[in-house]
Amino acid sequence: HFGLALRGMADVARQAGFHLLLSNSDETLDEEREAVRVMLDKRVDGIIVAPCSSLFEDNEHLRQVLAEGRSLMMFDRAVQGMEVETVQANFVTVAKQATELLLAAGHQRIAYISSMRCATPYSPTITLGPTPVAQRVSGMIDAYRAAGRELDPALIRLNALSEATIEQILTELLALAEPPSALIASDNLIAIGILRGLTKRGLRVPEDISFLMYDDFPWTELMSPPLTVVAQPVYEMGREAARRLICQIRKQSAGALPAFDSWMIVRSSVGGNSSAG
Question: Terminus-to-terminus CA distance in the chain, angstroms?
């Protein structure tokens, strides 16, 4: 996902005579703070960041970017209380459609696994902030309610940040008294971990469990079965983020922020729920 976005950013930056410097925070706030400090020390013209946290109080380092007069653009996620442009896809509608697809196939227990960091397990009372995860969960809730049901909070799992935690989450989900019959992965790394875990357990997709993931990669179509995915225009989003940042740097108008819609590609990884009824 971010690799493709970076390619879009680099293409635009190069054409405009800028160099792109890359730093990976590994979804760690301290690493992000240090990366921003280094970027400011190197006197970069502007920064595009996918913030680890959407909480205002966690992002004093990003406010410092603005305080020093540098240009700042958010990518994929926004920060509450910060009036900074954010380039991100719209997910509420497609998340509802994906959940409706699974519900229509008889899946009443649908789990969503995300790498989003959170100090506590998911509950309807916690704030997910202006993030794709919030949109996706909101779409799921909308689909359940439209079907006259409620989404079980225990099926929303966060903090899937490593192969070990993905395996632990999968183990916990399958050990529930009513385990999910369908799984949704929030990114390709989680998808790979889940598919590896299902194979290790001898569970087949979609015969034993249905599967859907966010982001479309060439390998998803080559899997057996090909995977149903939610795609988004990541490369184009990366290009637009870089273009708008360069406009900020040059004190030029970037025009209206375009909407980036995501869409579902239905393949063969969603089947009927054989245990339904």
Answer: 38
Using one digit for the tens of pLDDT, what is the confidence trace for 101-159? Answer: 999 999 999 999 999 888 899 999 998 888 899 999 999 999 999 999 999 999 999 99
What is the identity of the amino acid at 138?
Answer: S
φ and ψ of 217, to 5 deg? -125, 155
Copy the structure tokens of residue 6. 């970076």
- The answer to whether the CB of 240 falls within 8 A of the CB of 258 is yes
Quick check: pTM over 0.85?
A: yes
Q: What are the pLDDT digits (tens) for 243-275? A: 999 999 999 999 999 999 999 999 999 999 866
Give the largest CA-CA distance in the chain.
63
Write the CA distances from 90 to 4, 187, 261, integer angstroms.
Answer: 18, 16, 5
Exposure letters 140-150 (e unless 16+ CB within 10 A, then b):
bbbbbeeeeee
Residue closest to 255 by CA, chosen among 268, 267, 246: 246
Distance CA 63, CA 85 (A): 13
Helix (H) and strand (E) counts for the chain? 9, 11
Centre a 10 Å sphere on the Cβ of residue 108 and count the other Cβ atoms it contains.
17
In 3D, which of 129, 123, 195, 107 has the Cα closest to residue 156?
123
Radius of gyration of the chain (CA): 20
C-alpha–C-alpha distance, residues 63 and 51, integer Å: 12
* Distance, CA of 90 to CA of 230 (rounded, Å): 11
Cα–Cα distance measured from residue 91 to residue 71, given in angstroms and rounded to the nearest whole number = 27
